[in-house]
Write a structure and sequence with these properties.
Elements (H helix, E strand, L loop, with lengths): L2 E7 L4 H11 L5 E8 L5 H8 L3 E4 L8 H13 L5 E4 L8 H4 L6 E5 L11 H10 L5 E8 L10 E8 L6 H25 L4
Helix pairs in contact: 1-6
């Protein structure tokens, strides 16, 4: 059975590309049914178009509340009947108006270890903490999003990344992104092969 994925993103879409490539080469028994972005200019939408995947710009409307936006988004995403909704660089907090439509089926990627640096700019914040001598490693996790807790759902996959002496932020960020691409695909693969679709 081929699983149906809907990917939500806000930016460049390099994690989307990793998923698209894994679907194309058979690593993932899945296809991306649609890609949504709250940012119409996000390059991730162009990646979707190039792969022949439905690309949907979905900006917030003026005066729209978070719940109203999330209800509208949930309706639009549900039309693609996803087995899983993948948050791959989605930079909006989702409310239960969205999450309640897809229980145990929303998966988020976060560039930090469980419980560390929730929210935005996690890579930069971890790097700064290392510079201050507070930590010697960070990492990447993939987790379920059961509720409105920020980067706090049950962990599905995790990988630690140790800092290297003298490493620049740019070099560390590149290593984090490489792990993100690999871990996200591997975690989705485990989910799909465990028969939970």
């Amino acid at each position: 059975m081929t699983a149906r994925l809907v990917v939500l993103l806000s930016g460049n879409g390099s994690n989307l590309q990793a998923i698209l490539d894994a679907c194309a080469d058979g690593t993932l028994p899945a296809r991306v049914a649609a890609v949504f972005s709250n940012k119409p200019e996000a390059f991730g939408l162009e990646r979707a178009r190039r792969a022949g995947v439905q690309a949907v710009a979905f900006p917030k409307q003026e005066g729209e509340s978070r719940q109203e936006y999330d209800r509208r988004l949930a309706e639009a995403v549900a039309a693609y009947a996803p087995d899983y909704v993948i948050l791959a660089g989605w930079m909006r907090l989702l409310t239960m108006a969205f999450l309640g439509r897809f229980p145990q089926r929303v998966i988020n990627l976060h560039p930090a270890l469980p419980g560390a640096f929730p929210g935005t700019h996690a890579i930069e914040r971890a790097y700064a903490a290392w510079q201050r001598g507070e930590i010697d490693r960070s990492g990447v996790m993939v987790h379920l999003v059961p509720d409105e807790g920020v980067d706090a759902g049950p962990v599905l996959g995790m990988e630690q990344i140790r800092f290297r002496p003298g490493e620049t932020l740019e070099a560390f960020e590149a290593r984090v992104h490489a792990v993100e691409h690999r871990l996200l695909v591997a975690t989705i693969q485990t989910l799909l092969f465990s028969g939970e679709t």
